[in-house]
Amino acid sequence: MKPRFTLLAAALAAGSLSACAVARGAPADNPRLAQLYEQDQADRTGTTVLGPEVDRRDAERRREARALLDSSRVRTAADHYHAAMVFQHGSDSTDFRLAHELAKRGEEMGNDRARWLAAASLDRWLLSTGQPQRYGTQYLEQGGRTYLQPIDSTAVTDEERRRAGVETLDGIRARLARVNGTAEGSLAPPPARAEADEGPRVELVGTVADLARQVRYPEAARAAGITGRVRVQLTVQPDGTVGEIFVVDGLGHGVDEEVLRVMRAARFTNLTGEPHEIRMVIPVAP
């Protein structure tokens, strides 16, 4: 069964729908949201490796976009598209789901660019919750080649992909063949081969317990009696630093942000010679 999504009625409907009925005509695009969008895109121009500083700026942009959303200042189709892109570069499934809802609303209001973003944010949300993507917008690097992250190729048709501004699966295969310099395009990477007589290829420097001790337990979590585990997915770069990272299963109340802070400073040994995706679970308690 495909997951159903409901618009955030309190934030989206109040800010988007009612604004269309103002007597002076259609509202103007929010210039600050446009600036946040431009800053987001500038941070991703000319690089494929995003460091902690970009993560910090992303978090600041999300906080500001959230405030604009809560104060009913996300009104136009462009506003919804710009806000959706900011949340698309979030840190957890909640951000990605909000990005999808905002992009869908932008598409409904007539922003053509929001069609692709609605598909991409759905794919990213599904992957962040342990499900395969549907459209084929999310990629990974392995062995110096590019592949799709796990996909349910039957969930949508190629016609639906075209309508969303996404390539067909055959088109993706052909492009991957060109990019990877292979005769045939493969959507998925080859299965990993067991390496006999070798230790772990990617390993944390230190222990998970060391990381857990670095988590500063938030007062909001203490007041709410929150304990448990935070599951994160991250990319270990060839030099052992942490690249892209997001929360798969979190606890909220400021705990997830604190775990991300600690994990971004973690170091690994990476003998693969390439970016490597892993998942980790960090226990959190006062």
UniProtKB/TrEMBL annotation:
Q: Does the keyword Cell membrane feature in the UniProt annotation?
A: yes
Domain of life the protein comes from = Bacteria
GO MF, one example: energy transducer activity
InterPro entries on file = TonB-dependent_transducer, TonB/TolA_C, TonB_C
Cleavable signal peptide = 1-21
Could you name the Gene Ontology cellular component terms for this entry?
plasma membrane protein complex
Where can this protein be found? Cell inner membrane
Which keywords appear in this protein's UniProt record, sorted alphabetically? Cell inner membrane, Cell membrane, Membrane, Protein transport, Signal, Transmembrane, Transmembrane helix, Transport
One Gene Ontology term of the biological-process aspect is: transmembrane transport
- Return the PROSITE patterns for the record: PROKAR_LIPOPROTEIN (PS51257), TONB_CTD (PS52015)
Ranges for domain TonB C-terminal come to 202-286
Task: Tell me one Pfam family matched here.
Answer: TonB_C
- Classify the protein's membrane topology as the record does: Single-pass membrane protein
Family from the record: Belongs to the TonB family.
What this protein is called in its record is TonB family protein
Q: Which organism is it from?
A: Longimicrobium terrae
